[in-house]
Amino acid sequence: MNTSEKLGNRLFIVVPCYKEQEVLPETAKRLKEKMGTLIGSGKIAGDSHVLFVNDGSSDNTWEIISKLHEEDPLFWGISLSRNRGHQNALLAGLMTAKDYADMTVSMDADLQDDMDAVDAMVDKYLEGYDIVYGVRSSRATDSFFKRFTAEAYYKVIKKLGADIVYNHADFRLMSRRALEGLAEFKEVNLFLRGIVPQIGYPSAIVTYERHERFAGESKYPLSKMLSLAFEGITSFSVKPIRFVYRTGAVIAFVAVIFLLYCLIVKLTGHSVSGWSSLMGSIWLLGGIQLFCIGIIGEYIGKIYMESKQRPRYIIQEYLVDAPEEPSGGTECSTK
Ligand code: UDP
Ligand code: MG
Predict the structure, then answer these.
(1) Residues with Cβ < 8 Å from 78, sequence gap 6 or more?
(2) Is 167 found in the same domain as 46?
């Protein structure tokens, strides 16, 4: 559990936004109500904030955030220098909030995550849990395709050995010390759902109903979904690479038997012009080899990216109060 001294209760809700101009005004309104009741009930501190992260949107998202900040000090914002994707935007928000907050809750801008679950998350935090995962109670609002692929994916990634929470996306509460733990993970290939359970500390689960997107379209088309899924597997599991060794071994074994067979056929004088089987095996082996090299290449690509130690995001603008000690720009390359 957390330290025995009284827990700080300054909450930051971190919301990554990519081209969310349709939903932002409504999201801000509802967040303001939620923060109002939480502050009123004394569960969270009066100087709690909502931190919007503009992930290089090409629409009016940043203008809306700036206006919200001007009108109400509850709203803070940071704007990334370009689109870096949901996971990096979320990390930028969490790492910025870390310097101010006692706890953060991350949620999507589209009102799919149930805001009322935040109360239960804060309760869990006050009981002493450092990480509270928002877990969907059902996938009834998903299309059949999304539900099927998502559930299959959770099962596959679990089998491959990555420790992730079933039906949990990125709606979660993290305490300051959990965020400090997260800051120690320097990897460039970010899959927060996989990293957070690795931090450790006491954790709890809060279940919630996931709603339909309030407005606008999903910013996760199939291609992005597949790349996140692939990222999840190759960032957290070495099993695919072991699969390569095993397939190689099995193929080599089969090839030896095949060669023996050919030898026997030849020696007994039944040699036939096995053009089709020859061509077939060349193609088959060529294909399998390419596939295996592809998987190995994926890992080498990852090593390459990690060895570069590139910044994962660069913040261009801040709409926040100055931190006590300047640390918000640590990820920013000044060269
Ligand atoms: N998002 C982002 N950068 C991106 C794509 C998405 O910051 O490149 C944000 C988006 O604004 C939303 C959240 O990530 O707040 C989840 O995206 P979305 O709702 O489109 O995904 P879905 O719920 O359909 O999986
Ligand atoms: Mg969504």
Answers:
(1) 51, 52, 53, 54, 92, 93, 96, 315, 317, 318, 319, 320
(2) yes
The response to whether residue 134 sits with its C-beta less than 6 Å from ligand 1 reads no
How many angstroms is it from 250 CA to the middle of ligand 1?
42
For ligand 1, atom 12, the nearest C-alpha belongs to 108
- Give the mean model confidence (pLDDT) for residues 39-48: 94
Atom of ligand 1 nearest to the CA of 108: 15
pLDDT of residue 214: 84
> Do both 43 and 180 map to the same domain?
yes
Cα–Cα distance for residue pair 24/46, rounded to 1 Å: 23
Ligand nearest to the CA of 169: 1
Task: Decide if pLDDT at 1 tops 70.
Answer: no
Q: Which residue has the tokens 């999840």?
A: 232
Q: What's the domain range around 148?
A: 3-218+310-319
